[in-house]
Amino acid sequence: MSVAQSQLPREKELDKVILKFQDKPGLLLGILEEIQNLNPQKYLPIEVLEYVSQKTDIPLSRIYSVVTFYAFFNLKPQGKHSIIICRGTACHTRRSKNLLEYLKTMLNLQEDESQEGEKLFLTTADNKFTLRTVACFGQCALAPVVEIDGKIYSHMTENKLKEIVKRVAAGRKL
Amino acid sequence: MKITNYDSLQKVKVEGLKKYLPSKTRIAVGMGTCGIGNGADLVMAAFSRELKKKKIDAHLTKTGCFGFCSQEPLVNVHIPGQPLVIFNKVSPREVKDIVSALGKGFLPEKKALCKIESWDNLTGEVVNFGAGYPQIPLWNEIEFFKYQKKIVLRDCGLINPEDIEEYIAVGGYSSLQKVLGGVSPEQVIEEVKISKLRGRGGAGFPTGRKWELMKNVPGDVKYVICNADEGDPGAYMNRNEIESSPHMLIEGMSIGAYAMAAQSGVVYIRAEYPLAVARLKHAIAEAREYGFLGKNIFGTGFNFDLELVEGAGAFVCGEETALIASIEGKAGRPRPRPPFPAQSGLWGKPTNINNVETWCNIPVIIAKGGAWFTQTGTPASAGTKVFSLVGKVKNTGLVELPLGAPLQTLVYNIGGGTGTNKKVKAMQSGGPSGGCIPVELFNTPVDYESLAELGAIMGSGGMVVMDDDNCMVDVARYFTEFTTSESCGKCTPCREGLFQSLKILKNITQGKAALEDVPKLKDLGEIIKDTALCQLGQTAPNPVLTTLKYFKDEYDEHIQAGKCRSGVCPELFISPCENSCPLHMNIPGFLMLLKANDLNQAFESIYQDNPFPASSGPQGRYRPAGIPG
């Protein structure tokens, strides 16, 4: 099965990415990272994985194993805005967990108990926000840090976080 | 311009020096990730605007990070013939003051952090900036830098990381030229062996021996790999090294490739470090353009090229066999060793893997000699190590210390303690593979063996300071949560053992555990240590085992008294103020009554718990935000 007709121009894009990484080390990771970044919803639909498998002769099972192994890849669409709370040690000692709990309450997100030990990944019902954590941004000197839509905010507090999230939700400039 | 010999390298060096030491004022804004996170981009824009407005002809450029992260944004200004002056916490407002003073031909001394009169980049001649400004302290006179020795960070925060010519200006690529110009691979390895350099990724294996093992394996195709998958939470040295001077890594790897007869190399770097990735990509392109990577390097027939692979967020990929699997496009699961990568690594070929910092030491060892390198550090641990000093410490930043310096120097002299009225309780070294060292043992020298003796490890160099507000059971739980979710699942001890440990730890933090759970936790940890397949599993119990060893009273308190003295475990107390009060007075209740304006009842409620409120009041440690202690 190939990518649906309506998405044909994307097939061209996919080919370009696949060609770029041909015969290079780290080919599969590189291809998947770049393709996911091309998708405005930052995820890898199964059709795309099938297409990559066809083109690269890598079994779909292995591609699926790679996608589910690494934290970077998503199989589900991401919310319009991404909020990533750093859970590194320095951030933890400066209580980043409270920020996480605060946001969960603020955005009305519930964690699925069955996912214990898995990485946190929650999207609001209106698809506006995706909340996740990262092992460490390496911004430890500025702890606690939170990344919102690709920008890192340092020395974060609950009040600051509230303000920024409100602004983002209202589509205002930061 | 392609550089083919010593003369053409010297020509570029002259060009580079024109940018590094121009005949006009040079202003360099620290644009590492930390700097930008503190507003360095705004400072840069302000300089550009102000200089134009005042019509001052200066060379405005960017640099990496000088290491003092808590004082970012850092800006260094050099007027020809005068010392290089470093300004800290520069705001766009202060840019105005600096530029307007510059217009009058001087610098605002009062705003300066320190000055540098001369600097030894170690790979070239000593750079003399100039003398002057008696009021400003020298950089190595201030506490944060006083104990440091910058060998790895020799160029960081000084040169422009996006300009290969500035790297060449301070002696960059001269070690590669020296080696290719007539040092045999055996001699290179011998020099690295003499230097006693050990792997800076954490395990501390002697680098020279590792190289020799690889060299002696027959084979036409060999690989060198740089492990830049700095996954330890709390550590960011490698990020900074690449952001601030990416060419030292490329040069180190090229020299290693020559010594071990490898033709290609891979840098495996975390995707969470976008700026480091971008700067390294740029540097690799520059190195190709100048002929330091590619075919026939320095006209000697030596071929070597480098590719960059971005990791995708898996901690276990820092383990070398998992890292290789990841480059090969598989899930990053470790495999048993032997065979070691030197025998069968990437695509089954002999492969050498070293950490970023290990590679970055190589150009200096070649330039200065192995014997020079051993003058720093201890007999068993030569050289320096870069640490990221973070957590509950006043002066956060990157610190490069000679190995063997005691922990207290790091925490108190350099870090300045917590900077609050809280006391330091412990230091966590080595991330999820390391351990917690209590304050009583801070006279321990920081070297591979001493830290291992305490049950911690040096690791990649993350040093997280903890104070009274940090609960050590919670710390153990935090790391076990991390390693449980990062376990690749291949071997049972790690996958199941950590999961069970986490269960017990959660119970303890929620007041649901029994005293028998503590020995169980210890047994589990020891079994995982002995039986897990890879380093991740074998070291994962360290945070639990060290906290059990040094902070057992906190475990007991959680279990027996249902108390978390630091006020971290939410299930064990009503409110932080009640928890920190020695009499456990019902403070929230008092506040509610006060809010309802029921003063009599509020007054009564105090006397229910405490007949002497005025004298015992100051005992409570907790102060809500906004209320002065």
Describe this structure in words.
The complex is a heterodimer of chains A (about 170) and B (about 625). Chain A is α+β, with helices and mostly antiparallel strands. Chain A has 2 domains: about 5-70; about 80-170, Glutaredoxin. Chain A has 7 helices and 5 strands. Chain A has helices at about 10-20, 25-40, 45-55, 60-70, 90-95, 95-105, 160-170, and strands at about 80-85, 120-125, 130-135, 145-150, 150-155. Chain A has a 5-stranded mixed β-sheet with strand order 2-3-1-4-5, with helices on one face. By secondary structure, chain B is an alpha/beta fold. Chain B has 5 domains: about 20-145, Glutaredoxin, CATH 3.40.30; about 175-375, Rossmann fold (3-Layer(aba) Sandwich); about 385-465, Ubiquitin-like (UB roll); about 470-560, de novo design (two linked rop proteins), CATH 1.20.1440.230; about 575-620, no CATH class. Helix content of chain B is about 40%, strand content about 15%. Chain B is built from 27 helices and 17 strands. A 5-stranded mixed β-sheet of chain B has the order 2-1-3-4-5, with helices on one face. In chain B, strands 10-11-9-8-12 form a 5-stranded mixed β-sheet. A 5-stranded mixed β-sheet of chain B has the order 14-13-17-15-16. In chain B, strand 6 and strand 7 form a beta hairpin. In chain B, helix 3 (about 40-55) runs parallel beside helix 4, helix 7 runs parallel beside helix 11 and helix 8 (about 185-195) runs antiparallel to helix 9 (about 205-215). The N and C termini of chain B lie far apart (about 65 Å). The mean pLDDT of chain B is about 95. At the A-B interface, helix 2, helix 4 and helix 5 of A face helix 2, strand 11, strand 13, strand 17 and helix 18 of B.
